[in-house]
Amino acid sequence: MSTETAAAAAEVAAPPPAGWEEARSRVYAVGLAAALPTIGRSLAEADGHTLAEPLATRTDLPAFPTSSVDGWAVRGDGPWRVVGRVLAGQTPPPLAADGSTVEIATGAMVPEGTTAILRIEESARTADGRVTGTPRPVPEWREPGEEAYAGEELLPAGTPVDPAVIGLAASCGYDTLRVRRRPRAALLVFGDELLTEGPPGAGRVRDALGPAVPAWLRRYGCQVRPADVVGPVADTLPAHVAAVRAALADADLVCTTGGTMHGPVDHLHPTLETLGADYVVNTVAVRPGFPMLLARLVGDDGRVRFVAGLPGNPQSAVVALVSLVAPLLAGLQGRPMPVLPQVTLAEAVPGRGDHTHLALVRWDRAAGTAHPVRHVGSAMLRGLAGADGFAVIRPGTSGAAGDRVPLVPLPLTTGERAW
């Protein structure tokens, strides 16, 4: 059979592309079913992981009545006789007698028997050393449990761990957290025509995805080492099979760039067949980025691994990342499927017939509006560099100015939750 005949037969046999929303749901479900193991991490090591268990308080917060100001803890009516001082970190004796006071620092434990706290700047001293002033009517201390009661769930499992979560965990008394292991990812760059340094020319183009995709993957919570980026891989089937097999030895997810169609040097599909992979999604009805795919493999050790085939055109590859890779990684990390925010189109955005159109936009968060950007061809990156995400124009529709549509935000900082 000729190359042209084989390619035509493959196209005829291929199933219809999955709808974009269906594809997202499908890959999230297989990721969640293969969620990564839970491990213990110290607070210093937990950043970027995902809570595997709910975060609950170990004590009331605060655990004891705590002064909100520097001043005087007083009992009864003044003027008050000074009987001591209490600083943060101390356990004071009770105020036993009316007319007595202790100097108190912000954050210090309020003595039992205190009826009010007088701010230092609103107090005065009499000639015999007593304290006078008028306490404010609102108590100037925090009650136990004011923030949370012991055992109360503060954050659910699946919450990404960031500095705020780490600080909250520390305030609750945690030294370690149970988290999901971070996914390990690798990238294989396909294409003999690619240059890895210098300007393009003489029929060869610069590889833009080799440097960029690992950075996107890290923003979705992956571990990607420099050694995990391989390529360009030679445009032969044996080279592709060897490269994918080697990458799968350590990685939970292997991303590839290019080779997702059935051309004369597109070897990804035969490679996946050789390795015994099952397709989760094989092409998606979305523009740009239609020839994306996700395949699932089970190793001899029983561990599930995934291969994400990203199209070779740079913007199409990013569409595949936000469409397939991001929801897969959310599932693998035990995170919930994020709800896409709604935005108002500032200008009209055309539809793409029976395909979903992901249109690059700049997101004015304050106004809630999405503004289409220029230079958005599937091979272009200029528009992407100035965009905040993709407006979703559903199949069979077009977007008019003023329409409310979903937005797929780009993760613009490492560990950002929205995607």
UniProtKB/TrEMBL annotation:
Class of the enzyme per the UniProt entry, highest EC level: transferase
Molecular function (Gene Ontology), one example: metal ion binding
A GO cellular-component term linked to this record: cytosol
EC number: 2.10.1.1
Superkingdom of the organism of origin: Bacteria
Reaction(s) the record says it catalyses: adenylyl-molybdopterin + molybdate = Mo-molybdopterin + AMP + H(+)
Function noted in UniProt: Catalyzes the insertion of molybdate into adenylated molybdopterin with the concomitant release of AMP.
Protein name: Molybdopterin molybdenumtransferase
UniProt source species: Micromonospora terminaliae
